[in-house]
Amino acid sequence: MISDTTQKLCHPDRSGAKASGVEGPAFFHSAWSSSLPSAQRLASFCLFALLAFSAACNRGTSQPGTLNPQSAAKRYPLKGKVISIDKQAGTANINNEPIPGFMDPMVMPYTVKPPAALDQLQLADSITADVVVEPGNYWLENVKVTGHSKTAAAK
């Protein structure tokens, strides 16, 4: 059994209470809640929650260096015909054939990367390329002329 002196030294806020052999979460809760004002308890809880959340959000990849910056980009093969070229803007309007899993046939402007690839294009050329799509952005890479226009061939 625990003596009264030990009882007072170990549990000064529990005057007259006899210590049981088991001191568990109920005692911790009552001792903690009586020693801290409610605003301080709330601040402590919020700080703990913020730290736990921050730690969860800042976890890196399991294998550093394996994340590819273009991993979010999707690539689709394009076949189409050059309708117009704007070398200053670095774009070309292409009448593309259907792109499975991406879009129906249509005429639309594409940025061409690298811009020097525009130098090989002429109006009405048939081309193949890769359409690279990221959230909010798209462009053409690996542009290859598969057939020159008849007017360019006649020159």
Mind sketching the topology for me?
Elements: H1 4-10, H2 25-35, H3 38-57, E1 74-86, E2 91-96, E3 106-111, E4 126-134, E5 137-147, H4 150-154
Antiparallel strand pairs: 1-2, 1-4, 2-3, 4-5
Protein architecture, described:
With 155 residues, this protein is α+β, with helices and mostly antiparallel strands. The protein has 2 domains: 4-57, no CATH class; 74-154, Copper binding periplasmic protein CusF (OB fold (Dihydrolipoamide Acetyltransferase, E2P)). It is built from 4 helices and 5 strands; from the N terminus they run αααβββββα. Strands 3-2-1-4-5 form a 5-stranded antiparallel β-sheet, with no helix packed on it. It is rod-shaped. The relative contact order is 0.11. The model has no long low-confidence stretch (mean pLDDT 77).
In this structure, how is the largest beta sheet organized?
Answer: 5 strands, antiparallel
The helix-strand sequence is HHHEEEEEH
Which consecutive residue ranges, at least 5 long each, have pLDDT under 50? none
Query: What is the approximate shape?
Result: rod-shaped
Strand order of the largest sheet: 3-2-1-4-5
What would CATH call the homologous superfamily of the largest domain?
Copper binding periplasmic protein CusF
Would you tell me the overall average pLDDT? 77
- The name of the CATH architecture of the largest domain is Beta Barrel
Count of runs of 4 or more consecutive helical residues: 4
A few lines on this structure:
With 155 residues, the chain is of the alpha+beta class. Helix content is 28%, strand content 29%. The chain folds into two domains: 4-57, no CATH class; 74-154, Copper binding periplasmic protein CusF (OB fold (Dihydrolipoamide Acetyltransferase, E2P), Beta Barrel).
